[in-house]
Amino acid sequence: MEMNAHYTSFVAVGDSFTEGMSDGLPDGSYRGWADLLAARLAARTPGFRYANLAVRGKLIGQIADDQAGPAAAMGADLVTMVGGLNDVLRPTCDVAQVCERFSAAAAVLARGGGQLVLMRSPGRQGPVLERFRPRMEELYAHIDAVAARHGALVVDLYASRALADPRMWADDRLHLNAEGHRRVAEAVWQTLGFGAENDWDAPLPPAVAPGWRARRSADARFAREHLVPWISRRLTGRSSGDGRPAKRPALLPYDG
């Protein structure tokens, strides 16, 4: 239903999902759903301002400590937060503590006065997800409760069958590809009450199953290029976002 909401500014906080990995641009940077959403909102409102404080690899405690306060201080009339998934996908995790830090971050953002949007992040099909599904669902139930407390909107990407399709995911099997991000932008757009441009959850055409050799080659490449480096970072306490600045640290006019 069209709500005719008028947003003049948007700030996004979170991790790699909101930074835009792996919707790559020719210059090596990432675009992602938040940039796509900002572009559509800017097309409706001259002088529209946008900030994106997201940094890949950040845990919910870092989002709460480093991003929530600055984002709230910007006074944007639209704020999105996605976080906690990096925590629950770690080998050990205190889900109750993750939920507590998520609540704290949401409370700070809600005090900023803008429309708060939270998400139940999508999950890729496969055996790895099954191990972490109970943690994810505990976090997502908490997100629903937090949203009800603050009058926030929730975009339920976790229930999407289309976004669970492996073809929506990049080679690292952790981040959405360009089509996945485009669909997330459309899902948020519709949740905000704007008219649908398309069915963001429409299933892809039936897939042609790759042969055994192609699957083994893809698995080996994934392990070499993505899985082994990820495990190494976990074992050494490093993060892909260490030392990396926010994507768009200031609330400035959107310039495409």
UniProtKB/TrEMBL annotation:
Domain SGNH hydrolase-type esterase: 12-183
SUPFAM superfamilies membership: SGNH hydrolase
Keyword Magnesium: no
Swiss-Prot/TrEMBL keywords: Hydrolase
InterPro entries named in the record: GDSL_Rv0518-like, SGNH_hydro, SGNH_hydro_sf
GO terms assigned for molecular function: hydrolase activity
Annotated PANTHER family: GDSL-LIKE LIPASE/ACYLHYDROLASE, PUTATIVE (AFU_ORTHOLOGUE AFUA_2G00820)-RELATED, GDSL-LIKE LIPASE_ACYLHYDROLASE, PUTATIVE (AFU_ORTHOLOGUE AFUA_2G00820)-RELATED
Protein's UniProt name: SGNH/GDSL hydrolase family protein
